Structure formats: C-alpha cells, structure tokens
Amino acid sequence: MASTKSKINILDKPLSKGKSEINISTFGLLFCEIVQYCQNRVYTVPELQGKLSDLGYHVGQRMVDLLFVRERNFKRETKLLNMLVFIKSVMWRAVFGKEADKLEHANDDEKTYYLIENETIVNKFISVPKDKGTLNCAAFIAGMIEAVLVGCNFPAKVTAHWHKGTTFMIKFEESVIAREKTAEGR
Amino acid sequence: MSRQGMRSTDPKKVNSELFTLTYGALVAQILKDYENDDEVNRQLDRMGYNIGVRLIEDYLARTGSGRCYDLRDTADKLQMAFKMYLSITPSVTNWSPAGDEFSLILENNPLTEFVELPEGHGGLKYSNILAGVLRGALEMVQLEVAAWFVQDQLAGDSCTELRVKFLKRLEDAMPVGED
What we know:
The complex is a heterodimer of chains A (about 190) and B (about 180). With about 190 residues, chain A is α+β, with helices and mostly antiparallel strands. Chain A has five helices and five strands; from the N terminus they run βαααββαββα. Chain A is about 45% helix and about 15% strand. In chain A, strand 2 and strand 3 form a beta hairpin. Chain B is built from four helices and five strands; from the N terminus they run E-H-H-H-E-E-H-E-E.
C-alpha cells in the first residue's frame, strides 16, 4: 500500500464472461513443463501424481466460485447426485468445452463414483514411458475435481486411472453419505 | 471410438481460464519451492525457454513463414505469434534509434487474469515465462535476443511492457559429432 502507484483492486474489475480461448499447443507445452518440473522433484510415480494433483487442487479451488457465480447465480448444490452432475456437465463444459463421457456408481460400494472421460485434454500430447505405465497425468484434473467437491462441502478423495480412457474414482467420506441419507429421510 | 455429441468449441482451442489458473498454480508452487523472487524469475524464464524451443516448430509448420528480412519483420511475426498462441495482439513500439531494440505492449495479458501480487513480492516478474519463450523461439531461428519486462500491470504500471533487444545473429553450428 505504501507504493505511490495506484493498484486496481481485482474485485473492482468486472468479471469476464470466460469465453475467451487460446491455442491448445500453448496449454500443452505449459503442462509439459509442469510435469517436468514435478518430475524433477520426486522419485516415484505416486509422488508425481500427488504433485500434479496438488496443482490441480489449486486450480479447482479457484474454479468453484467462478463456476457457481457464473452458471448458478451463487447457489451451491446440496444434493450429492446434483453435485456430481454439475461437475460432469457444467464444470466440464466450461473448462473443457464438452461434457464428461460417463458417470457411474460403483456396484459394491455406495460411497464410490466413477467419472469417465475418454480423452482428457492434458493427456492429449503425452505418451507415457514404458517404465511408468501407471502414470496418468490427469491426476491434475482429479485434483481439480477434488477441490470443487471439498469446496462445496462434499469431502472426497479423487484419483485418476487408466480405464476406458481416464476414469476418475471419487470416494466420498462416510459423513457425506450419512448426511445424504438423513436428508432423504426428511 | 465414437465421440458422443458435438464439441461446442474448436478442438484446437482451450478455455483460457484453465490456462490462466494452471499457470497461477505453477507460479505459486515454484514460489513455495524457492522462496526467492529472483530465483522464481529465473525458473520461469528457463521454462519459457524450453517452451519457445518447441513452440517455434509449431509456428513454422502452421504459418510456413520464411526468414525475416530485418528486426521489424521479426517484430511483426512475433505479434502474429502472440495472436496465434495467446489470442492477444500486443502493439510494437518504442523502437531504439538504431532499430535493434523494441517493446511489445500487452494491454491485457491472459496470464495475469485473476492475479494480484501479495505484498512483499516486488521483485517477482509474474509473466517472466513469456520472456523465456521469446528467447528460446528466436534462438532456434538463429537470432540471439535478450527479452525482459520493464513494466507490469501487476506492479501498478499502466501497461505491461516486454522489451526485446537484438544481440547477434547466430551462425549455423553443426551439432557435435555430425561433421
């Protein structure tokens, strides 16, 4: 504040419509540098995915408010299923320009859901080396999903796996399922 | 594999906010790792260099542009590249009398949307990756330049100014072991 130059507060600026786009190569190369940067600081594949997920979390946290202000007129979702559908359609369309391919509920576990995306944007330019077969850089997007869920008070763990393209496994905490049941009982 | 539904957007484009926030996450992470503005600036510049080295291939393949006649020509092509890759058109001004130095003025910068620098980071050049990209890309077409930010909207300046100085023309060097 001591500076003589007048800084414009970010909240004084109008919020853009968020329709601007940039070349996918630019994003691809930036993401490539991010993966390399993370890779240089870890020893194992799970650690690398953890790092990418942390960065995605940072993005997701900032995306939550933006999405709800723009698309839902400040109203948050309170039902679990509506929340998941919000991520599959609204968030996906805003961020990736299309809906996610599928949303499934695990047969054997009520707190696990799967969100399936055949071709994630981050994996478009990545060929996984043979010795790191399980690495899925969509861990970055998993982090984004997790942040959005946690930000809306649906605490969960989200991980990315190679299955039908990329499958995001969403495991909610027990409390979320319990709350959902009491809400339904009313 | 059948693709369900129509893509509402061009598949060669991506939402610029995803890009903005992703870059923000990266800068925040580097800042956490190095805790020193100058070191962060260096890291960003180096990453930009790596990007530039590869981005120039994409640029040449798409535009099929030939060699530049002079630095003004180069500046025009840089302007076009900004349009292609960041969807912005910087203005080219402030030529030095010798014609070896100019500025790119960015009125809006997709890297800095939503960004506010916290107190105590006066030395951080948030968009420094762009300087690296320019340096890397031009080096691959035998132009050695220096690029640096002289003004930054984030620091309260009225615009963001990226200065570019021509240093020398690089001679074609044979890769080691290929003579």
